[in-house]
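## Example pair
The file below holds two records. Each record gives the amino-acid sequence first, followed by its structure token line.
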Amino acid sequence: MEKKNVGNLNLEQEIKRNLQEMANKEIEDVYKDLDTSIEGLDQKEAAKRLEDHGLNEIVYEKRKPWYMYLLRSFLDPFILILLFIVFVSYFTDVAFAPAAEKSYVTILIISILIAISVTLRFTQEYKSQITADNLKELVHNTTAIKRDGKDPEEIDMKKVVPGDIIRLAAGDLIPADMRIISCTDLFISQSSLTGESEPVEKFPDNRDSDENENVADIDNIALMGTIVVSGSAIGVVVRTGNNSYFGSIAKSIAKDVGETSFEEGVRSVSVLLIKFMFVMVPIVFLINGITKGDWLSALLFSISIAVGLTPEMLPTLVSTNLAKGAVSLSEKQIIIKRLNSIQNFGAMDILCTDKTGTLTEDKIILESYLNVSGKEDKNVLIHGYLNSFHQTGLKNLLDKAVIKRGDNTGIEDEVSVYKKIDEIPFDFRRRRMSVVVKDESGKRKLITKGAAEEMLSICSKVQINGDIIDLTDEINEKIMSMVYELNEEGMRVLAIATKSDVPDETKFGVADECEMTLIGYMGFLDPPKESSISAIKALYAHGLDVKVLTGDNDIVTKKIAKDVGIPINNVLLGTDIESISDEELYTLASKSSILAKLSPTQKERVIRVLQENEHVVGFLGDGINDAQALKQADVGISVDTAVDIAKESADIIMLEKDLNVLEEGVIEGRRVFGNINKYIKITASSNFGNIFSVLIASAFLPFLPMLPIQLLIQNLLYSISQISIPWDNMDEEYLRKPQQWDASEIRKFMIYIGPISSIFDIVTFAVMWFVFDANSIENMALFQSGWFVVGLLTQTLIVHMIRTRKIPFVQSIASAPVLIMTAVIMIAGIIIPFTGFGAFINLVPLPPTYFLWLIGILISYSILTEITKRWYISKFDSWI
């Protein structure tokens, strides 16, 4: 089903074009466009621009006040119909009724139903919303701004304006979208925006950027919210706040994304039943008015029929079902922010997921340490350990993984004999680092690790099978081929090289990294979660198609997908989809299990296109780059460790990163849907049959087949019996595939199943008329009592026939609450005519022989319903 996009695509395209234009211009032209210079703005101009552009902060969607949630709880078509009936009943039963006939019973009964439904829905949704964490502001930091030609000063980031000159250093958060003016070894981490863990190098040069290029890939543009990992730079601010690239993402999550598949389904069913009611009620009114001559009684009876035709418990049952599902999932450490998303779990047929932290552990391990021949070699681990252990800089995840693997492997004796002499620190330009160590005999060794290409550039020798030989072009190609194979297995590869001819000195530099001997490689993985393997298998078994949507590269993604059990049907890249139509994108995306190198907007677009082609789509992610996709999806799923914008965008937040919870959510969603659909089909078909019965009785009887108050009481008792449905079971076969709304299926169900009750209502009419002589005004109460009991019992009992495809009470038994409630209401229905309350609503005791006929009618009704059910399933292959 489509979740409409009313969104933010134009804004993001405008930002992208603007940044590309700034990237392509000479820096003097950029200054001219921004009316600034290398000396920065003066304070007066900066204050004016701050007033014009606003604070440099991200403004997210604000939480709605409590009364908006309360108002929304009333905006349900059935609630509105019931409110209208209360309004009409006030005039017919109170305002214009004779003093002796004034009655608040109808108003009271309907008001109770409204109050239950509205209260449940309001309290659950508002409580869920305030439980979820509020979105926090982006930053409370300062940045170095040059103004008035003076040296840069630290100023609150919120006061940054377009045209400001900013000085950046390692560790700085980039405060706005900037064009780089000059830089030295500038490496920026963009993982929060793109999902890629590797820092990217930026340059000041202007260049011609491809219009299809991802904004994050433009070399001389630094984006708001990214981080300077190393180096320094000076840049000019181009865009700030919500007009930044990050701001466009935040803005997009505040938009109205329209109805979910659940809401569309309930609305379509509501429209169908309302149309049916508007057609049938006037007909009943006219027939009774014409045949009986009492137009006021006909009006009251028609109002009662309208109540009977309205599945007034639908809002209550929907709210109760969803609230029960929310409580059930909260026990599994899941916060439900939007109740309707529970049912969407059940309707979901495609799950799109980010890779990092969802399918993977979001931690690095040393998977393999190989010599140049590709065999595991402890010597490679020892040298890698010495390099990582003895560096004094900030140890990254790769260093920690090497040290942990070395400690677990037991190489203490081999490494303890070495002492550190010096080190050559890592930098992103040469992409390697070195340490110099000496053993107990005083022999020195230079050990270097780094990216394979850079390592090969400083090696002249290679160690193979213990022999040191020259590094030839042929060997070089074989080495790079092996590195590529390891990359295809999802590994990040570092090469290890040594040099024994080291001078006896204490200071070493980059120039010493030459004429080295390559000894092997280390392969690192962000391993897949064990839970993701079993979870993906379970999701496929439950009829879901799983797709990976990631900003990371396709090689690593393919490996992770393979490891967790996602078939690699086809791989689609962000650059492939930038210029194609939605129709072409759907064709490609529907066939692809991996979509890599995607921008946030491309993720959102993929989900929207799938929705427009009748799919219900879920998305699982936790980064800034996932926020738009989370908001667009029918079910947005995040985790409590996610960035704030991702949690704000999500419908569901998992407190534990265990993907098996997804399976439980899917099953819970299908159970919720099944029980809601069960009520709708049972009630709609029963009401449909009752209308035919009423039409026939109204046309041929000299009196009303049932008084309005009797009809309302019968309807209330039946509605009470349905309160237990949220606690009912669903057959295992039903839970194995996605379940989606289909109003035409409900219409068909009504037409084929509804008339069964009419058949036995007519049988009841005949029995009461001919067998018990209830065929006159004097015996009207007996006739009405007989139909009151049969109507209530058949409606209540039929739940057990319709709730399952199987044979009721034999192959499938309802839950204890349903069985108990059925028994209680059936007993109450039989007893009421014998009580003072029964006399109050003009019912009379029934003769003993009536109950023999009642048993026969109920048994016959159950048998015919079961036979019809078998035929219906064989013909249409559907049921609940």
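Second record, same layout:
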Amino acid sequence: MQFFISFLVGIVLFYSYQYFPLSVVFVSSFPFLYLLFKKRFFLTVICVLGLVSGIAYALIRQEPVKEIPYYIKDRVAVKGVFKSFPAEIEGGTYKQAFKIKSAINIDTDEYLNHLEEQEVILFSDRVFEPGTECEIAIKFSKKRIKLNPGENPKEKLYAQVLEIYDFKNNNFSLNSKIQEYRYRVIKYIQQNFSRDSASFITSITAGYRDDISEELKDAFNTAGLAHILSISGTHFGLFSVFLFGIFRLIIKFLPYKILQRITIFLTPSQTAAILCLPFMLAYLGLSGASIPAMRSFIMISLFLAGLIIGRKGFWLNSLVFAAFIIVIWEPEVIFSLSFQLSFVAVLFIGFSIGYRENKEDVKDKKEKKIFKHLKNILFITLAASIGTAPLVAYYFHYLSLISPLSNIVIAPLIGFALIPLSVVSSFIYLLTGYFIFTPLIKVISDLSISAVKFFSGIPFADLKIPAFPLIIVLLFYAGFIFYLLLNKRKIMLAIPFVPIIIYFSMSVFEKNELTITYLDVGQGDSSVIELPDKKTVVIDTGKTGRETASFLKYRGKKTIDALVLSHIHPDHTGGLDHLLKQFEVREIWDNGQIILPEISKTIAHRSLIRGDMTEGEEYALYTLHPYPEFYTMYGHEYSAENNDSLVLKVKGRHKSFIFTGDVEEEAEEDILHLGEWLRSNVIKVPHHGARSSACEPFIKAISPDVAVISAGRENPFGHPHPETLDALYGVEIFRTDIDGAVKISESEKGVEIKTHGDFKLEKTRFFKNEMKNIKRLFETW
């Protein structure tokens, strides 16, 4: 086991060295020095071999980073294979992952070798089964990557299918057959169950989660049952127990002569274990072989193998070996959240069970079985929840408080009834065409979802947690390792929690400054203002509201005190519905020319006009435009709607910020006479830097030190226009299409500006840059 652990450590050190070279060498030397000091020479050799093997393997498997190419204007002919199921998005349009084998530019006849082996998400009105080989003409879309705090920016290729030249179903490979069977099961469930039930059942049966609605995901998260949506140890463990019991029962009722012949070579338990293995392998294929599923399959297989050969394996050995197998398959997976959550949960459950068994006394043995089982479920749930809490809080910014209760009530219903019935029905359906337990599965699924929604709706079911530094997570798990090394002394259990307590205690007394984050929402606008009195104002939503919602969750927000809509255009208001569903919105402010959807009576609605003012502790918000008598004399309706944009000025203790919506030159000239009221330190440049806006007199009247332009990457309008950039000569310019999200905070010294890139770890070989990376471990947005 020591070799496998050292191998895994070697993988981690290899990738960590790229960001923290000196720190990795310094820290990794201590364990070996300790072993040498203790004269554990043989163990030292084993660990060194494992470490070197891990580093060498990671080096061999490392792939050079490629800049993903985008071709917006040119048509491209590609050959390749569809890798995923079709997912319907809207109006009969489907998206599927497609792996490119070869590509050629149709307009220039140029071979595009750098597109080979790239995966692209295709949009089409046609549906293709996974494994289908195809030759098609496509047109690449613009970059969809958004650089905002709390989001994991992964560049992907997107393209629209223009024409299909040729295709054939590749039904000869094992993988294509498995994908075909998965697709058949998923389609049946989608067609015969309600939307929520279908998405829930396909997630626990076939590992397909693309159709789960945001509302249902949030309900499972809040109830502390999100782990059920990802096929893992719970699913494989319960299904194996179900199969083992069924096969034992069948063997028990076999004719005596057959039973006598079998037991000459194998015990009934060994026979049942052998019969379970092919079904567990089939479930792995049906589930899509995700990381948690692979880990669970390996551990269950090792356990069954132990029964077959008459030996019980150690759970820790099985877990480490499972990690080793998965990392051999894909080394970088060790840094994926799915891998980390899966293994940390099992690790904490294993250690907690061992701790509980050591402390078990006579009184425990006399307890009634039902109470003992309830205590065990509660103990296991708490162990898994505590172990994964830092990762869940860091990545998802919440902590479920009702998780122990919901796991006791709902998890057994799903685990002992819904999962076995769904999986068995799926296998029978593939063999016979009949999904035999459909009515019963519908009842249990609907009951489970209703229970999840009930628990998630209980007040204070979860706790919203603002972003905190990565170092807190690292210190928590380092503290747990320290506790294990000190022979699990009770008092040392407090060590992992010390950094968490210190950090959040200090954050309570931290002084709040006026802070504005200009989000990267593509070709649109959305800004979040965090005021000194802890109120939150959102100005515009972008097209979808998803980037804004993600950032608000990152900041631990569940309430928007004022949601401001500058004007009617969808790149500013398109995310209204999404934010209304995700957050408690107290007030909506607009320019009086927006027809709002039906909203709750608890939400106050204000139509702002020039002269309106809102004051708070050390800040004030002024409305400078529009006013009732204003109307556009030139241009068309679109320009008139732009010119009716709200122009707001936010004044803090030391600095001021102006938000200009999409006002064009006519509206800018109309408010020039406001003079000093326009003057601001920071301007959100109007209309994404279009040529029709930000005229030179307007910029001079505001006289900003800093300008922020919100524009989409490779946008078709050419924003920001060179003339706008010329008008901003001498002003420090930040652009969301280049810099990502921009954070500006006022302080006594002036304004403090940071961009998305300032919080990103950078590969380095130099001590100075390594110190910057170390500093970033202690920072949040």
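Notes on the second record: The longest strand covers residues 93-105. The CA atoms of residues 342 and 619 lie 46 Å apart.
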